[in-house]
TrEMBL record, chains A, B, C, D:
Pfam families xref list: Chorismate_synt (PF01264)
Gene3D superfamilies the UniProt entry points to: Chorismate synthase AroC
Pathway: Metabolic intermediate biosynthesis; chorismate biosynthesis; chorismate from D-erythrose 4-phosphate and phosphoenolpyruvate: step 7/7
Gene coding for it: aroC
Organism: Pontibacter fetidus
Keywords, comma-separated and alphabetical: Amino-acid biosynthesis, Aromatic amino acid biosynthesis, FAD, Flavoprotein, FMN, Lyase, NADP
Subunit description: Homotetramer.
Family statement drawn from the similarity comment of this UniProt entry: Belongs to the chorismate synthase family.
Official protein name in the record: Chorismate synthase
Keyword Cell inner membrane: no
EC class name: lyase
UniProt xrefs under CDD domains: Chorismate_synthase (cd07304)
C-alpha cells in the first residue's frame, strides 16, 4: 500500500467506501495559513454525489470535520487531520458482489494481492477515497493563492464530443455554470445529451478533463525524476479511472517538426521572458518556465453498468452480474474538482521544495 | 533536485553531459543475483550514439565500470555503483550557447531555478543522463528475468506514420532488425524515410514508443498513489522529451461505452483467470491482473535543429542561434532502450514491494 | 513537521493535546492479520493517565475507534486509521501559559519555529501525542507475535535508584505487578518511595527504561544508515523527554578492552549459532544476530513542576509561572508502554524490509 | 540496504573496503555554494589512516575526485558525486577470514542476511565506508558556514580516562594539536598512554566523542519523529562501533529533580532569549532553542585484535582466528571527523527543511 503522496506538503489518506469514514492527514502545510472549514467544504461540495441528474443520485452530505492542525483559524505547522463520515455504511446488501469479480473493477486484483478484500462497494478501491484528496486539495489551493497561482480544470471531451476551442478563448468563470462543467454552453449541451443517452441506455461513457494552471512562478519542478510534468502525470494517473496524461502539445505534438514545435523566447515590453508559442505547456526540462501550464487527463467509461455482464466468482465459476444502485453514467463532471485538487497538491509541494534550491 | 527513483529498488543518478562521468548507484538490489558487466554493456550499446545513420553520428563508446556491489559476479545486497566516463569533455566550444537560452531546451529554466548552470551541452538536463538509467535498467531486467517477466519496447509512430498492427501480431525478435526499432519492416522503411527527410531538411521529428510487459504476476502496484500505471507514467514522463503517457485503451478509450470497454473475466482451460479483452492494459485498480501490460509514450521532436532560430540571451536581448555539431534527427530509435530500462526499474521495485503485503 | 515514521510499516500521527482528537494512520500493515479493538485498547490502558497514585490523577478513558483498514477483524492491507477523542478539551483555562514560555518545555521553540502555537496544554508537543504511537504499536506487536518476537520494557532506574540485576534474572511477568513497572518488588518499592517523595515536594524525577527484545530472527536491520540500533535509537529519542539511548554494553562498554568486549561465536547442541557473551546487544554491523536485543532509554524529570518558576513571556518580559493541574511526578511507569510500542514499530518495519533482501 | 541519508540534503554512499572505490552522491545541495576540492580533501585528511602512531599504520592517500555537480568551483544544484579510489585492493590475502565469522564483526550477520558477502576486509561493513560520509560532510559544513554554524567534536574519554572539564572551558583550536584529538593536553597525554598500552598488549580500547554545535539558529528540527536530537542520534548510531548517544544532561540527568533540571529562560542585555542553564543541550521539543547543542557518542573497543580468538566458521565448526595486518588500537582519534561530518549533514538537512515551515 502507498497512501502517502508528496515530499514536503504530504498527504496520507485513509478510509473505505462503506467503512465509518474517509479522511486525510496533511503533514507539512506551512504554519500561518488562514483557512476556514467552509473553504474545505466548498471544494467537497463540487465533488459531492447527487449534485445533478447526470451524476449519481446518491445523497451524501460529505460534511468535513477538522481534528487537528488548525487553531483559531490558522494552520499551526502541525498535521491537519480532516475526516468525512460515511453515511449509511451498514444499510446495503453486498451479497451479490461478495464473491464475484466485477469486470474492469479492482475486485480481482485486490483479492489476489491481499488475499482478502472489503467487498462493500469497492472498499478502498472506490472513488470515494478521492473525498480525502479534494479536502486536502482545498488546503493546498489556499496556499497557492498566497503565490497568485490559479488552477482551472474543465471537461473538454465526453465520448467523441470534443471542445475544440483553445483554453485562452474560454471563460473559466463559466465552468460551474452547467452541470457537465464545460465552460462552452453549446458544447456542454451536447455533452449532457450524450451522457443522458448513455444513462438511458443503462450504460456509461468516458471523457477528458483539461486543466490550466496560471500564475506559477518560474522554477517549479525537481529534475531529473520529479519533473513537474512527471509528478503531475503521476498524480493524475493515481485518480480512479484515469487512462492517460499529456501536457503541452502531447500526443499530437509528435507529428510536428522541431522547427514547428520549438517555442521561441522573447522579452516582452515589461521585460518578462516569454515564449511566442507554448507547445512546451509551460514546462521545460521538467521545470515551470512562467508560461501557462496545461494538460489533459483521459477517464475511461465507468465500469459499473446497469446491464447484465458475464464474469467469474472467487471460485473461478462463471456468474452473471448486474449493477444495482445509483451510479454515475459519466465521472467527468465530478472528476473536475479531483483533478484540480491533485494539481494543487503537486504545485504546493513544489512551491515548498523550491525554497531549498539556492544558498 | 531529485535524482533518486524507486522505493525499495532505488537508483540515484549523477553526471553532466560534459563533466568527467555519468553514473548511477543502485540501492536495494537483492543479494544473490548473477550479473556480468557484459549484460550491462549490451544494454548501453543499444542506447549508444553513432549506432546508425539516423541517429547522431557522435562516436562514444560508453564503457561501463562497476565500482561496488557485485563480488565474484554476484550482487551482494550492497549498493551497486556503475560509472561511464564521458569522452572529450573539454574539446568543444560552447561560447555560442553560454549566455543564450536555446528554444525548448532547459537553459532558461535551469538558470532561473538554480541561478547558475553548466552550459556545456545541456549539462544535467542533457539526455546523456539516461546512460545511467539504462545501466541500472539492465540490472533490474536481470532481476525480472528470475520472475519470467519480459519487456519489449518498439517504435510505433514517427511523425504521422503509425504502425497500426496490434502488438500481438508483431515479432518482438525483429525490433532490433532495423535501425528505427520498429518490428514491422514495411512501416520501418517508411519511418526511416521520414527521419532521413527531416534530417536532410536540417529538422527533427517526434514519435511514439509502445512498450509491452509480459509475464508479470498478478498483484504488482501499490494503491492508492503508487498505482502500477501511475509509477509507469511518472517514470516515462521523467525521460527527456516525453510529452504523454497512456496505457491500455488510453485516450481513444474515452470514446467507448462502459459495455464496450469492460473486460469480462473468464477461467481458461488451465484454470487461470483471464479477461476476454484487455482495454485495462493489464492493470485494474492500479494493480497488475496477469494480462499483458502495454502503454504508449509520446516523444516530441528534438529541440536542437541545424537551422537558425531567434531567441534571447541571459541579458534578455534577442539573439540568433544555430545548432552545431552532431545531433539526432529523431530520438525514437535510441529512446526504446530507455523506455525499456525505466519499465524494468518500475517493475523491479514493485516486485520487491509486493513481498511485504501479506502476513 | 515530520509526523510519519517507518519505511514499509509506516505510521502518521496527528492531534493536539487539547484538540478534538489524537490519532494515527498505519500504512503498510500486511493484509490478513487478525486484530481486535480490545488488543489495541489494552495497550492504551497501560499508558492511560490516572492508573495509579504515582501518575497523573487526570481521568481519561482514551477509548480507541477504528475508522478503516480492519474488516471483519482482519487487516485488509489498506490504511488503518485509529482515533482517540480527547475529553473536555474546552474546559481548562490556559490564560496563564498563553503568552509565557514554560522552562524546558517546547513553548518557545514552537513559537519561534512556526510563528504561532496551540498553547493549550502543550498542543502538539504534549506527550499526549504518544497515545497514537501506543495504538499503532499494538498492531505492530500483533504482527511480531506471528514471528515469535516479544518485547519487554521495564523501569530499571528512578533517580539514583537502579535495578542492578541482569535482565535474565528477572520475571517479565511481574512488570505490571506494581505501579512503577519494575519487575523486582524490592527495588520497585524504593522507586515508588522516591517518586512519592518527589511528588510530595511538588517536584519530579527522571529515570531509565530498559527494553529487551527476544525471538528476533537473524538479519533485521538495513545498513549502512538504517542500522537496527540506529532506528531503535531514533525511535526512542523521538519520545517526549528522552535524553539518551544505549544498547548492549553502551556507555559502560567503552571502558573495556577489545579482548574483554568481543563476543565469541559458538554452535550450540542444537546447531544454532550463538555468542558466549552479548556485549553486542544482539546487533552486529547494524543487523540482529539472533541473540537478545537490549537497550536503555533515559528520561529526564518532567518539566512541569508545581512550584513557582521564573521565566519570560513572548514579549521577552520576566514572569513567574506555577504549574497547575494534575501532572505526573515521574513519567517512567507510563513510559514503558510507549517504549514497547516504538520498539514494536521498528521491528515490524524491519521484518517487512527484510523480505526484499534476497532474490 | 539503506545507503541514503537525509530528506532534502541527501547523501547516498557506496563502496566496499577492498573494491575499486568508495564514494558518495550528494543530492539536494543548494546551488551557488563555492567549494573547492581542497576543502573536501582537508576533511578526508583528518580521517586518513596512518596519520599517527596511535592509529593504523596503513598508508592510504584517500585522494578525492569530483565527478559532477560542481562547475567552475560552484555547486550547480545537480548531484555532487565524489569518489575515492581504494589502494591495493587486490594485494591482500583474505583466505583466513573467507569462511570464518570474526567475533563482534558483521561477518555472520551479513552472511545470514544476504546469503553472501564480500569477505575482503569487512567489505561494506568496514569503517572505510565513512570516507564517503566525511567527504559529504565537508560540503555540508561549507553550507553551514554560510549560516554561522560551527561544529567541534573532540575525544572526551578513552577507556576510563575522562576529560571532566566543561566544554566551555576548552579551546577548540587545540583539538588537532595532539594525536588523540583531546583539547586538554594533560588528559590527552594520559589517553595516549592508555592507547599505547592497549596497542602494546595487542588489544584495543573504546571511548567517547563529545560534539558541540554553536551558532545554530532557533527552529531546527522537525517533530514529532524527526526531532533534532533524534536525527543526531540516528546519524551517530549509524557510525561503525557506536554503542550510545546522549545529549544535554543525558543519562546523568535522570538523577535530577525537575526543579534542578529545568532551564529558566531570560532575556539578555541584547534582547536575546537565553536559558540560565543548558541541561536541554540546546534542544527543546526536538527543536533547537539557540543555545549550544552538545552530545556524547560512545564507541566500543575495536573488534579486530592481534590476539588469537576462538570462533566458528560458516560450517559451524570452531576455529581460531588471529587478527593480521595494521589496525587501529582505538578508533577515537579518527572518529572525531566522522562525528563532525554526520553532525554537519544533519544540520544542513534541517537548515533546508526549516525553509518550508512558514507561509
Amino acid at each position: 500500500m502507498s497512501n502517502t503522496y508528496g515530499t514536503l506538503f504530504r498527504i496520507t489518506t485513509f478510509g473505505e467506501s462503506h467503512g465509518p469514514a474517509v479522511g486525510v492527514v496533511i503533514d507539512g502545510c506551512p504554519a500561518g495559513l488562514a483557512i476556514s472549514i467552509d473553504e474545505i467544504q466548498t471544494a467537497l461540495d463540487r465533488r459531492r454525489p447527487g449534485q445533478s441528474d447526470i451524476t449519481t443520485p446518491r445523497k451524501e452530505e460529505d460534511k468535513v470535520t477538522i481534528l487537528s492542525g488548525i487553531f483559531e483559524g490558522i494552520t499551526t505547522g502541525t498535521p491537519i487531520a480532516l475526516v468525512v463520515n460515511n453515511k449509511d455504511q451498514h444499510s446495503h446488501d453486498y451479497s451479490h458482489i461478495q464473491h464475484a469479480f466485477r469486470p474492469s473493477h479492482a475486485d480481482y486484483t485486490y483479492t489476489a494481492k491481499y488475499g482478502t478484500r472489503d467487498y462493500r462497494g469497492g472498499g478502498r478501491s472506490s472513488a470515494r477515497e478521492t473525498v480525502a484528496r479534494v479536502a486536502a486539495g482545498a488546503v493546498a489551493a489556499k496556499l497557492l493563492q498566497q503565490y497568485g497561482i490559479t488552477i482551472n480544470g474543465y471537461v473538454s471531451q465526453v465520448g467523441s464530443i470534443k471542445l475544440r476551442k483553445h483554453y485562452s478563448k474560454l471563460d473559466f468563470g463559466k465552468i460551474d455554470s452547467n452541470k457537465v462543467r464545460c465552460p462552452d454552453g453549446t458544447v456542454a449541451a451536447k455533452m449532457i445529451g450524450l451522457i443522458e443517452d448513455a444513462r438511458n441506455s443503462l450504460d456509461t461513457i468516458g471523457g477528458v478533463v483539461t486543466c490550466v494552471i496560471q500564475g506559477a512562478p518560474v522554477g517549479l519542478g525537481e529534475p531529473v525524476f520529479d519533473k513537474l510534468h512527471a509528478e503531475l502525470g503521476k498524480a493524475m494517473l493515481s485518480i480512479n479511472a484515469v487512462k492517460g496524461f499529456e501536457y503541452g502539445s502531447g500526443f499530437e505534438g509528435v507529428k510536428l517538426r522541431g522547427s514547428e514545435h520549438n517555442d521561441e523566447f522573447y522579452t516582452d515590453a515589461q521585460g518578462n521572458v516569454k515564449t511566442r508559442t507554448n507547445h512546451s505547456g509551460g514546462i521545460q526540462g521538467g521545470i515551470s518556465n512562467g508560461q501557462d501550464i496545461y494538460f489533459n487527463v483521459a477517464f475511461k467509461p465507468v465500469a459499473t453498468i446497469l446491464q447484465p455482464q458475464t464474469t467469474i466468482n472467487d471460485a473461478g465459476e462463471e456468474v452473471t452480474l448486474q449493477g444495482k444502485g445509483r451510479h454515475d453514467p459519466c465521472v467527468l463532471p465530478r472528476a473536475v474538482p479531483i483533478v484540480d485538487a491533485m494539481a494543487a497538491l503537486v504545485l504546493a509541494d513544489f512551491i515548498l521544495r523550491q525554497k531549498a534550491n539556492k544558498v
